[in-house]
Design brief:
By secondary structure, this protein is mainly beta. The chain has two domains: 374 residues, Methylamine Dehydrogenase, Chain H (7 Propeller), CATH 2.130.10.10; 73 residues, no CATH class. Strand 20 and strand 21 form a beta hairpin. The protein is built from three helices and 32 strands. Strands 13-14-15-16-21-20 form a six-stranded mixed sheet, with no helix packed on it. A five-stranded antiparallel sheet has the order 23-24-25-27-28, covered by helices on one side. A four-stranded antiparallel sheet has the order 1-2-3-4, with no helix packed on it. Helices cover 5% and strands 36% of the residues.
Length: 458
């Protein structure tokens, strides 16, 4: 699901930027991230591009998929995401470009105020950039032992980057686990063996990698061999292979714990408790992001169209069995695969793979995701016109597809219709996130399952 980072910035991407950045999207953002002292918590997900604050400017490092027109090398565009917008006309935000020195293209970036790291699904190169001068400082290569991962949305040499600033290291998702990079020496120091993740999460406070996995046998090295441990993970019975799930990696000692839920079943219905114990998070757990304060982890299941929410604040880690159990709830009806957590307000921003829909879950709202309850929280729609993006719809309006609310095994259907005020009364969690006024003419709303509806402003 990384195709979107290869394209120009869209509003969906900017929402995730706001979620991952340390402060709101403002050109007067705090400079806390580039001052000496204890670094703030890292963004909860590995993400596809780095956003850092340097000398009061929030800068996005955006990989480009076409060659530089002057050198024909790959390059990265540096964007000031705090520039005030100008509607659909856009506003100049490019700060500079960084030539990568070779005709290879980065597909992901991550970093802090001291270093930006760029990597690629298609190349073995790892690039280091100084965010203060926006210059390339070093390039290293993954050695020949590194293979390529494979997922429904792609794969490759490196599929994600997370920064652990407090320990001066970066975490790269590779074909056979996670490579740890010393950002001082700019070298790879070790690899933690685990099934590869398409998009992994990271909790820098509790030093945990949240690593959803599936299709491990689609990863291979240059000889065609799979990672040797692909079939080493099992369900609660100890014999049924777990081909899709979540590993929680404790970076204090690099122990890999496999998440277990003996009562897991398909929250969409039709199953019995425990029938999905060998794939407790559903089909194709696509991404993960963590809230380091609440310790809630969000893992969307692409195949099931729902989000798993796991509460690691109540987790039990078994070091002998190398398993972890924790309360497990769901959010239904959104069908979105990507997630990034904003840890100050405990919002999980969601985005759709190959769609224009995005969404929001309030992880601090216990009433919305408490045990036995599954419901959509607040969905944000991207509005489109023939001329491009015209606005962001940040709440349910008119008559959206009826969401399903499931509580304690029973299900009912709740429909919302009417004006902004009536929606605010019926969906109070959306009220503060609804713009008082919007400027748009016609939009295409894509609820789940995929369908199209046309709306006009009321």
């Amino acid at each position: 699901m990384r195709f979107f980072v290869r394209q120009a910035i869209g509003l969906v991407g900017l929402l995730v930027i706001c979620a991952a950045a340390e402060t709101a999207c403002s050109s007067k953002a705090s400079t806390a991230t580039n001052d000496a002292g204890t670094p703030p918590p890292a963004a909860g997900g590995s993400g596809a591009f780095g956003v850092v604050t340097v000398n009061g400017m929030q800068k996005l490092y955006l990989p480009q998929s076409s060659p530089s027109p002057t050198t024909e090398n790959g390059y990265i565009t540096v964007v000031n995401v705090g520039v005030a917008g100008n509607g659909t006309a856009g506003a100049p935000a490019q700060v500079t470009t960084i030539d990568l020195g070779v005709p290879e293209f980065a597909t992901a970036t991550g970093g802090d105020s001291n270093v930006i790291i760029a990597a690629s699904t298609d190349s073995r190169s790892i690039w280091f950039i100084d965010p203060n001068t926006d210059t390339l400082t070093k390039t290293i290569q993954l050695d020949a032992s590194y293979g390529r991962s494979g997922f429904s949305g792609g794969g490759g040499y490196v599929t994600g980057i997370a920064m652990d600033s407090a320990n001066h290291r970066a975490i790269l998702s590779v074909w056979n686990g996670f490579a740890l990079v010393d950002t001082n020496t700019k070298t790879i120091t070790s690899v933690i063996n685990a099934p590869p993740s398409e998009n992994f999460g990271f909790d820098s406070v509790h030093q945990r990698i949240l690593a959803p996995f599936y299709s491990c046998t689609s990863s291979y090295d240059d000889t065609g061999a799979n990672p040797p441990f692909c079939n080493s993970y099992f369900g609660p019975d100890g014999t049924t292979p777990m081909t899709a799930g979540l590993n929680v990696i404790d970076l204090t000692d690099n122990t890999v714990y496999t998440y277990q839920d003996p009562s897991a079943t398909d929250p969409n219905g039709g199953g019995t408790p425990g029938d999905m114990a060998a794939s407790p998070l559903g089909d194709e757990p696509d991404s993960a992001s963590a809230d380091p304060t609440t310790q809630k982890v969000v893992v969307p299941a692409e195949g099931g169209g729902y989000q798993n929410i796991i509460d690691l604040s109540q987790a039990t880690f078994d070091k002998t069995k190398k398993t972890v159990t924790a309360p497990h709830t769901y959010v239904l009806g959104l069908g979105l695969e990507g997630v990034a957590v904003e840890y100050n307000k405990h919002f999980a921003f969601l985005e759709g793979e190959g769609s224009s829909s995005v969404g929001l879950i309030n992880l601090a709202d216990a009433s919305s995701i408490d045990a036995g309850t599954t419901r959509p929280i607040c969905r944000i729609f991207r509005a489109e016109t023939a001329g491009g993006i015209s606005a962001i719809r940040m709440a349910l309006r008119s008559r959206p597809a009826s969401p399903t609310v499931t509580r304690s095994g029973s299900s009912s259907t709740a429909a919302a219709s009417g004006s902004r005020a009536s929606i605010s009364r019926r969906w109070p969690r959306c009220r503060r996130r609804m713009p008082a006024t919007v400027t748009w003419a016609r939009s295409t709303v894509r609820p789940w399952p995929p369908q199209s509806r046309s709306w006009t402003r009321q």
